[in-house]
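Work Package 3 (structural annotation) set out to generate three-dimensional models for the target panel prioritized at the project kickoff. During this period the team completed the workflow that converts sequence records into discrete structure tokens, so that structures can be stored uniformly alongside our sequence database. As a representative example, we reproduce one entry of 159 residues exactly as it appears in the project archive.
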Amino acid sequence: MPMPPPGKEYRIRPLRRGDRDVLFRLLASEGWVVAEGEQETVLSWVVQHPEMESFVAHEAASFTRVFAIITMSHRPQLRLGGRVATIDLFLVGEEHRGTGVGTDLLQTVLRRTEALGCKRVELALPGTRDGRHEFFEQHGFVKNGDELYVRRNPPIARK
């Protein structure tokens, strides 16, 4: 895994199961709460899935002090005649925003999508324009006019 330039106070590495507690605290800080009883299963799915890749940023002095994550899925798509990648999750802890870690995480994923031969990288952003829109536009993303429709499935009944 390429390291950030010298002088950075963090490193980037693949997500691992041992990141569970800090990862779910980071997600909860942004309002994405995953029930404790489901965390291990969900993390296992993400870490083991052959068409998902996740990278975290952690403090250089501590392998376990994770403060940012990016998760990307990739799959073949007939209409593109190749692979498409989707950035599913991109989160930088508030105190680390503006430090360049987001750009380094995004560049890590973009290099990986190029290596996989992906023809396109997609992501969904909120309808209300904010700094995230500008960030991704600065990195070559453009709005394509498609609207995202979502259907929520009912929760699985537990016996």
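The first helix runs from residue 20 to 29.
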